[in-house]
Amino acid sequence: MTRNMVYFNDALAETVGFLRKVKFPASVEPLVIRDLNGRIRIALKGGNKEKHRDLEARIGEKMSLLAPFVGGGANGVLFPDDFFDPDSVFNHPDILDLLLPEADKPVRLLDRQIVGQDWLRPAPGVPTCHRIVFFGIKGGVGRSTAMSIAAYHLARTGKRVLLIDFDLESPGLSGLLLPPERLSDFGMVDWFIEDAVGQGEAVLKRMISVSPLSEYTQGEIRVAAAMGLDEKFYLAKLSRVFAEVSSDNRVERFSQRANRLVAALEAQEKPDVVLIDSRAGLHDLAAVSIVGLSTVALLFAVDSAQTWQAYRLLFSQWQCYPSVLKRLRDRLVVVEALFPEANQAERARLFLENVYKLFSETIYEQIEAGGDHDPEIFNFDLNDTSAPHHPLLIKWNNRFQEFNPLMLPEGVLTEAEIAATFGDFLKGLDRLTEGGTT
User: Fold this and answer.
1) Half-sphere exposure of 385 (CA within 13 A, CB side)
2) Model confidence, pTM
3) What is the pLDDT of residues 295-310, one digit of tens each?
4) CB atoms closer than 10 angstroms to residue 424
């Protein structure tokens, strides 16, 4: 009889399924460990190899059915004595409660990944000011233009605005808001390189440029660009940026260093608002920006099957980790970019229905039919304008193609044109930046 093939998608679900049916002693807690190749082991915290042989045998029998995705030892079952330092495993900071849609309770999972973990690592602490991340699944949706208009708008209301270019692999923010001669000596990549050898503080003050747009505003627009002036070795630096750094007998990940950098820039510049240009797509740089840095994450979207599919991939992952999702869901805000000129009522209806379907099936908590409505449940009606799925609109306008923000003070675009295209978006931005961050 031929055994059914087990694939990556099946292995974890099968593991969760049979662990739900195992009656563990009160002193034993299972930890699912998945390695870089997707192989799974079950580590039994509080277990004893001699005392729990029957438990090991029952779990091992089920684990044997997961081949080739069962790892370590004869049966994939491990006890504390099998580890050199069991505390470092059972108390690892990357352990999360995984709740699959078909499961009734979570399991503890330590998922070893080369990349992708930063989508599940909200940063600790509360930022001292608003941090608004501009993110899109794909490029070409007007994200950088919107960020430039937003910076100019906020500065005109008297705010001190700090723009940070975290799109390190496709830098361009400086080209929009700074003429070449205004670039600072150092950029974001320089800080990561110099900080690794103890010189981060020395370059911090030489990373900031003032945009010429500030001359026409009550506030100020200050820019931390990806690269510095007269850059010759950008690619050589970029290849080293994401390396972990060892200091004081501990390892600091890129996400932790990025948070430390932004906090240092805020302490130095004392902005009212920080606007962060994120890497597009499901990239670790985007994860650091959205999950690790933002107080608000503007999710730029157009009404296409590719857009909804990609956002569903991201949202579905968060859905499996309730503790992570609860820390992220309040900061998500959808932006409907490039809203069409024709058939607007119908297109707006379709967009709203599609984004609501996405949020309802992944982000929003379910309300049981006939039950009392709990106001603490994270759920919104389709037409609730305060809901995260209700989009801020940016309308399509050919005048903003090949647009140079540095020409704004010269009246190349009228106030009426800016309001017609970005009015709804800017009003939403004003609401998001009112008051404090807590």
Assistant:
1) 6
2) 0.92
3) 999 999 999 999 999 9
4) 18
Residue 224 sits in the same domain as residue 244: yes
CATH number, position 173: 3.40.50.300
Q: Report d(CA 256, CA 121) in Å as an integer.
A: 10
Structure tokens at 185: 């000596």
Tokens coding 365: 């908590």
Scored b (16 or more CB within 10 A) or e, 385-417 reads: eebbbbbbbbbebeebeebebbebeeeebeeee
Give the model confidence (pLDDT) of 209-229 as tens digits: 999 999 999 999 999 999 998
Contact between 279 and 289 under an 8 Å Cβ cutoff? The reply is yes
More confident residue, 436 or 296: 296
Tell me if 219 sits within 8 A of 155, measured CB to CB: yes
Domain end position, chosen among 81, 112, 143: 112
Task: Report d(CA 324, CA 340) in Å as an integer.
Answer: 35
Domain that holds residue 37: 8-112
Burial of 132-171, coded b for 16+ CB within 10 Å and e otherwise, reads: bbbbbbeeebbbbbbbbbbbbbbbeeebbbbbbbbbbeeb
Which 3 state secondary structure label does DSSP give 85? coil
The pLDDT of residue 111 is above 80: yes
Alpha-helix residue ranges (DSSP H) falling in 288-365: 305-319, 322-328, 344-362
Decide if 174 is inside a domain.
Answer: yes
What single string gives the DSSP state of each residue in 390-428?
A: SPEEEE--GGGTT--GGGGGGTSS-HHHHHHHHHHHHHH
Q: Which runs of E-coded beta strand occur in 46-95?
A: 77-78
* Beta strands, E only, 140-258: 160-165, 208-210, 220-224, 245-247, 250-252
